[in-house]
Structure to design on (676 residues):
């Protein structure tokens, strides 16, 4: 028997079982033993019948009598009386008539199942049954529980795993033995054996530690290799000029925060190298990341290079172009906007300006990566909200340069430290964690829907003071199968009832780009007092006069998204408010309470990771693409160990090609996580 032995050759796998395994994607012994349980149930303690208590139980006894009867059409019930030295108990199976033939032998069996009160008596329900032997498959031990992919039953999996049990002893080590010993880990074979045939909780814990460490080690090693490859790439250095940057900073209409200064200095140091910058700037909503990017673009222009800034939406691209034009025009730096709104002759002219180098900074959406866009001398690529773009799209932007340009990635979604180490390990990271001077903390409050009248009165007082606000709804259109609020219905309701005396605007993703742009411009100019919108305003909408936000059905949004939405207010000098309106009057969730308590996006990111798991954090790559079977990306302690081990491996004489399984994992993770 080998890892590549077909399951069809294993005793007990007939044509039907073979088809079931194949449907679940299991074809070989190697596939089977690496198909891991997602949890374990403890049936290892064999109890005397007279000591049974409700819950999971295992007993050893002799069957005194057994019978099967049909209780209704399609339902047969098998009942047995089981006895041991202490007493007797009834066992019941539903639609398992084969149990009668199995138990009529009146031999001693092990029974593992749920001991519960049903039909006016205590009984053992739908228990597994086996003869006592050295290696049990279904009873008398800690049982692995597997996902039932394509209906593949746990009983079949355990039965065939018992047949291949000897292979665990001969599995080759997949990591350097020196590393396994250094980390105090069990061997690879021992870890897999313990996952399928554990002797107890400690056995499982050690197995999970080993397998989780290996997964994280592969991920972090891939990141180290990516970073290593990065140092071999050649770029053109953009040399720092202290006098010039000082004059730019002193001319800005505001004072930079210390965090902005630190991030800018990190970037300037990177730009001076002849290897391309690969930096991620994390900044909470409203922290001033665009300003830092504009300083990098200033230096690039001063040294004769163009910059491209790619944003995920038309609204955000327009916002950036407007902000950058205000900041950079005084320094004789031209800014162009390329989006679907730029058409015909204007588009052709912009293409020509980009190609001749007469436009210095080009801001755009995906339009930037079209084949017809040619830069004269692209030196800096800035990708905003970079997780909204796929690896291929980011690469297409970098390919616009005649040499590898410097890459600056921006995100307003703070990344938990454990994720930053694993998914973003190849990137150098800067954090902007200060709010610009004069900005006040947003006051947040959870609101019950039955108190809506009081809420609208508070909001209207803000409008009387000349302020503006948002109402965010999760749906665009009404859905009879869904009790969530829609923007269309809420817009009509507020316009015809509560805010008849106010100018109300409507914004959602199904509107044409020019319609969305027009609404946002009207809101920015103060012509619209209240904007009823979907989450399309989540990123990039900057209206300093907007001080109030109502988020309907707030309990249906993720924590990070709610924090992003809240960041649309509080962008000016006025006190701002965010109200999280629940769908009903039930107790609010833990994540909403955390939002009410804190405005710190970095703290909330850690909370979100703890409450919800990683989700789709790394761009368009689903978390599932990582295929982490055991490791969790919020185990900071194990991640730190794996990171140290990856560093040790890179500095050692070991070659990843000597470890087939590790090499395959590293190659996969390199493809998934690389930024350029």
């Amino acid at each position: 028997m080998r890892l590549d032995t077909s399951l069809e050759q294993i005793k007990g796998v007939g044509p039907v079982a073979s088809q079931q395994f194949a449907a679940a994607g299991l074809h070989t012994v190697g596939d089977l033993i690496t198909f891991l349980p997602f949890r374990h149930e403890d049936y290892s303690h064999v109890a005397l019948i007279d000591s049974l208590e409700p819950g999971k139980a295992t007993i050893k006894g002799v069957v005194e009598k057994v019978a099967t009867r049909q209780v209704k059409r399609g339902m047969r019930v098998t009942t047995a009386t089981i006895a041991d030295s202490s007493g007797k108990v009834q066992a019941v199976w539903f639609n398992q008539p084969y149990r009668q033939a199995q138990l009529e032998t009146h031999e001693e069996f092990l029974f593992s199942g749920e001991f519960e009160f049903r039909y006016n008596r205590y009984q053992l329900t739908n228990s597994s049954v086996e003869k006592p032997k050295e290696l049990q498959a279904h009873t008398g031990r800690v049982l692995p529980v597997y996902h039932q992919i394509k209906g593949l039953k746990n009983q079949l999996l355990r039965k065939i795993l018992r047949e291949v049990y000897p292979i665990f002893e001969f599995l080759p080590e997949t990591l350097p033995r020196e590393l396994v010993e250094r980390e105090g880990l069990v061997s690879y074979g021992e870890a897999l054996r313990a996952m399928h045939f554990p002797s107890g909780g400690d056995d499982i814990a050690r197995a999970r530690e080993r397998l989780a460490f290996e997964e994280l080690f592969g991920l972090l090693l891939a990141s180290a290799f990516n970073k290593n490859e990065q140092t071999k790439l050649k770029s053109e250095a953009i040399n720092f000029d202290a006098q010039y940057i000082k004059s730019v900073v002193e001319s800005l209409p505001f004072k930079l925060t210390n965090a902005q200064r630190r991030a800018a200095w990190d970037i300037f140091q990177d730009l001076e190298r002849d290897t391309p910058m690969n930096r991620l700037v994390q900044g909470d909503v409203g922290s001033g990341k665009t300003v830092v990017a504009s300083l990098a673009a200033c230096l690039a222009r001063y040294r004769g290079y163009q910059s491209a800034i790619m944003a995920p939406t038309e609204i955000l691209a327009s916002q950036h172009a407007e902000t950058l034009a205000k900041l950079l025009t005084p320094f004789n730096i031209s800014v162009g906007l390329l989006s679907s709104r730029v058409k015909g002759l204007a588009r052709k002219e912009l293409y020509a300006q980009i190609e001749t180098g007469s436009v210095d900074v080009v801001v755009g959406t995906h339009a930037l990566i079209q084949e017809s866009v040619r830069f004269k001398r692209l030196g800096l690529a800035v990708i905003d909200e970079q997780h909204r773009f796929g690896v291929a799209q980011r690469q297409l932007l970098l390919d616009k340069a005649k040499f590898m340009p410097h890459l600056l990635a921006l995100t307003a979604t703070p990344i938990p430290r454990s994720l930053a180490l694993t998914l973003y390990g190849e990137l150098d990271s800067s954090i902007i964690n200060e709010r610009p001077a004069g900005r006040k903390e947003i006051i947040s409050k959870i609101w019950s829907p039955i108190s809506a009248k009081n809420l609208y009165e508070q909001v209207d007082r803000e409008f009387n003071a000349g302020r503006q606000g948002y109402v965010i709804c999760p749906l665009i259109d009404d859905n009879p199968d869904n009790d969530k609020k829609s923007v269309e219905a809420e817009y009509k309701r507020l316009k015809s009832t509560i805010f008849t005396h106010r100018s109300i605007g409507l914004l959602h993703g199904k509107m044409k780009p020019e319609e969305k742009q027009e609404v946002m411009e009207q809101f920015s100019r103060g012509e619209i007092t209240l904007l009823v919108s979907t989450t399309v305003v989540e990123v990039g909408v900057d209206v300093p006069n907007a001080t109030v936000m109502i988020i309907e059905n707030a309990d249906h949004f993720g924590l990070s998204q709610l924090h992003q939405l809240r960041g649309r207010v509080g962008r000016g000098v006025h006190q701002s408010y965010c109200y999280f309106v629940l769908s009903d009057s039930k107790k609010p969730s833990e994540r909403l309470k955390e939002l009410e308590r804190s405005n710190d996006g970095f703290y909330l990111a850690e909370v979100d990771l703890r409450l919800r798991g990683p989700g789709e954090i790394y761009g368009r790559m689903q978390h599932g693409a990582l295929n982490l079977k055991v490791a969790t990306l919020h185990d900071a302690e194990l991640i730190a160990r794996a990171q140290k081990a990856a560093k040790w491996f890179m500095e050692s004489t070991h070659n990843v090609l000597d470890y087939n399984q590790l090499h395959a994992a590293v190659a996969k993770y390199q493809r998934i996580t690389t930024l350029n």
